[in-house]
Amino acid sequence: MDNTMYARLFHMINIAVIWGLIILFILKPGVAHAGAVAGAQLFIHALLPYLLPYIILTQWLLKIPNHTQNIPKWRRFMKAYVLGSFGGFPVGAVTVTAMTKNGELARKHSGLLLAACHAPGPMFIIGFVGTEIFGNIETGWKLLAAIHIANILFFLIAILFLYRKQEMDNIPSRFIQTTIEMPLLEALKESSTVIILVATTVIFFSSLGTVLSNGITSAFTVDMGISKTLALSFFEMTSGVQSATDHFLDLSIFPILIAIIISMNGLSIHMQVFVIAKSCGIPMTPYFVGRIWSIIFVPIIFYFIL
């Protein structure tokens, strides 16, 4: 089978999936509406208050011109990690993309930092997950520590292996930092674009996950709590966390389950990162490897810390 045949097959599968989902949404309008409402409420309650202020401040800082030309690599890496990984999804992708466009990061470095700076914000983990889900701020801090330990280990191991092969300190010459007259206004403009992207993906995938979980439960003898949590965790992390809380709060493994769901991130967040990173041509392979690493090691590290 040649490339043309593969392309046609892929196109046909896409069309079939889209029409299948359209029909499913038509057949279950109430369920789709309930899922969209739940996604919108979660976005407004759990994401927007924790995400928006930090995105604006991060973008504002990145828009201020840097007049120092020869900044050591470790300082550039530290800047990307602090601004990106502590801002929440998808601030890491926004930060790495902006620094790559400004000429502060090489393309190879940007791929690794895209994976390493991918972390939920401390306001979300401590404020929402720790306080409202776990009912314990200390447990939220421990989960946050596990996430950052896993990310830093991944970056250090990856960079050591890459430096054995080649030196990656060449900054792309095509990215030239320009002077921005009103950095705050530019930060507000770009932040609004990111927020709209986040809201769109969260609401859509929450609705999709709810419809699919309802369909699976109707067609098979599967517990609604299990099917809904699995479907929502795959598509939208925050909705998956909320579903797991509604159905599995009393289980002893509940904290580990939440750690797994947050490590998976969900298709919604992955789509946000892909759209943002694509604008700068950042390689995505390190990101996908980093996600597998996180799914494996974050729950393990969290278990030993807990």
What would the principal axes of the Cα set say about the shape? globular
Number of strands: 0
What share of residues are in beta strands?
under 5%
Order of helices and strands: HHHHHHHHHHHHH
Structural category: mainly alpha
**H/I helix tally:** 13
Q: What's the end-to-end separation, in Å? A: 51 Å
What does this protein structure show overall?
The protein has 306 residues and is mainly α. It has one domain (68-305). 79% of the residues lie in helices and 0% in strands. The protein is built from 13 helices and no strands. Helix 2 (29-63) packs antiparallel against helix 8 (183-219), helix 4 packs antiparallel against helix 5 and helix 11 (254-264) packs antiparallel against helix 13. The longest helix has 37 residues, at 183-219. Residues 167-176 have low confidence and may be disordered.
